[in-house]
Specification:
Layout: E1 6-9, E2 12-15, E3 21-26, E4 31-37, H1 41-60, H2 63-79, H3 81-92, H4 96-120, E5 124-127, E6 130-136, E7 139-143, H5 151-163, E8 166-170, H6 176-189, E9 196-198, H7 203-212, E10 218-222, H8 225-238, E11 241-245, E12 251-254, H9 260-272, E13 284-288, H10 292-304, H11 324-340, E14 343-346, E15 362-365, H12 372-375, E16 382-388, H13 391-398, E17 407-410, H14 414-421, E18 430-431, E19 449-450, H15 455-460, E20 463-469
Parallel strand pairs: 7-8, 7-10, 8-9, 10-11, 12-13, 12-17, 13-16, 15-16, 17-18
Antiparallel strand pairs: 1-2, 3-4, 5-6, 6-20, 11-19, 14-15
């Protein structure tokens, strides 16, 4: 893997302020494949100053020109799609098929959508005797996670560029190579120097420096709820904007009228995608008590079809988890579920391979709502099946966590499922297997976050309003 030994600041790769580095490890074979600089507060300050200097000209750039720049980025991503997918597989462990289709294909669509939106959005409107302007919020500090390394960068960069903001990105330390490829694309397409900047580094050092920098107007963070709380507190002290996309423990509610086999099979596949490392995964399957035993059998059989192995092997459905700590964390949750009395239907804590950070696809039955595996975000290929007595009981269980990011409802018809979904305390619900829509707002209720991503709602996070009264 190609790796840069500097930071992308003010339109060029420049040496890091310090000499410390971060090793990038391939989670499939546990070998170091590259090193990148461990950025310091000095690097962050240089990047923020570059963004601040570039902001006025970019904010004044006509939306049609900003749209053209975003479209050029989408085209560049498409041209290097295979290279990006291979990089994601190498540093994250996503299967090659999933990496190309979702890890790269989805952010290309998101980038294209913001090119379209920048060209068509009404940044100036008339309300009575007032003219209302939507203006860029300013300099954005974006801190992105490792589970979707390109997608989460694009989810912040695309609307920021469309709004007229300048941005500094601090990618996850486990997956910095994908971020560096993206910076190369920015350079290749000729985006004005300083509008986009990249600083690699550790969260407690570079990430904290970015979140607390006084010249950052908006902090956009995707990651754990625990870190999100700290970022929110720091931003609150400085009275600056935040957008937080945090954890989830989403419920997959199967109503009695649903096609049980389809609901359970698709539900298990949803959790196994990206080896369970998806914040919006439907990790709790809720089934009426009369059909619970049948659902358990279906879930166990479905899990057996998801084969963990080398992500470059076409026969593998699951790659490894991102690192050894994540593997240990997920296996610890599996052991905790067993200790609490849940029954293992498939998988278990033993690793299916001697090398690599693999976890077996695991299905738990006899799970009660109070267990840690039903309350806490595991972030691995682990499914919990819970039983309910009636719809009110199902709703109580579905809403009975601190999270509210996503979910699913299955029923005999869409209207019945939608009626139940409207009562769920969550930001996005899939009805009878409805496809993910990158134009629809994505974000959470409760401790799953603040703000929305994608489409016009995502653009709004990067805008502030001014009204002139005539």
């Amino acid at each position: 893997m190609k790796a840069h030994d500097g930071m992308y600041i003010r339109g060029q790769w420049r040496p890091a302020a310090g000499t410390d580095t971060i090793a990038v490890v391939n989670p499939t074979d546990e070998q170091v494949i590259a090193t990148v600089p461990a950025g310091t507060a000095e690097d962050v300050d240089a990047a923020v100053r570059a963004a601040r200097a570039a902001l006025p000209a970019w904010a004044a750039t006509p939306p049609a020109e900003r749209a053209a720049a975003i479209a050029a980025l989408a085209a560049a991503m498409t041209a290097r799609r295979d290279e990006i997918a291979e990089t994601v597989t190498a540093e994250l462990g996503s299967t090659a098929t999933f990496a190309r289709r979702v890890q790269v294909g989805l952010p290309i669509r998101v980038m294209e959508s913001y090119a379209e939106l920048a060209a068509t959005h009404a940044f100036e409107t008339t309300v009575g005797n007032s003219t209302v302007y939507e203006e860029p919020v300013g300099v954005v500090g974006a801190i992105t996670p490792w589970n979707y390394p390109l997608h989460q960068i694009v989810a912040k960069v695309a609307p920021a560029l469309a709004a007229g903001c300048a941005i500094v990105v601090k990618p996850a330390e486990d997956t910095p190579l994908t971020a560096q490829v993206f910076a190369d694309l920015v350079h290749e397409t000729g985006l004005p120097a300083g509008v986009f900047n990249l600083v690699t580094g550790l969260g407690p050092v570079a990430g904290q420096a970015l979140a607390e920098h006084p010249d950052v107007d908006l902090v956009s963070f995707t990651g754990s709820t625990a870190v999100g709380r700290r970022i929110g507190a720091a931003a609150g002290a400085a009275v600056k904007r935040v957008a937080l996309e945090l954890g989830g423990k989403s419920a997959n509610v199967v109503l009695p009228s649903a096609d049980l086999a389809k609901a359970v099979t698709v539900g298990v596949a949803n959790v196994m995608s990206n080896s369970g490392q998806t914040c919006s995964a439907w990790t709790r399957i809720l089934v009426h008590t009369d059909r619970y035993d049948e659902a358990v059998e279906l879930a166990g059989a479905a899990a057996a079809t998801h084969v963990p192995g080398d992500p470059n092997d076409s026969g593998s459905h699951l790659g490894p988890l991102v690192n050894a700590a994540q593997q240990a964390r997920v296996r610890g949750y599996i052991e905790a579920g067993i200790a609490a009395g849940a029954r293992v239907v498939a998988g278990g804590p033993e690793s299916p391979h001697d090398t690599g950070y693999f976890v077996a696809p695991t299905v738990f039955a006899d799970v009660t709502p109070d267990m840690s595996i039903a309350q806490e975000e595991i972030f691995g290929p682990v499914v919990s099946l819970l039983r309910y007595e009636d719809e009110d009981d199902a709703l109580r269980i579905a809403n009975g966590t601190v999270y509210g990011l996503a979910g699913a409802v299955w029923a005999g018809d869409d209207a019945e499922a939608a009626a139940f979904a409207r009562r769920m305390d969550t930001g996005q619900v899939h009805i009878n297997g409805g496809r993910f829509n990158p134009l629809a707002p994505f974000g959470g209720y409760k401790q799953s976050g603040v703000g929305r991503e994608f489409g016009v709602h995502g653009l709004a996070e990067y805008l502030q309003t001014k009204s002139l009264q005539f």
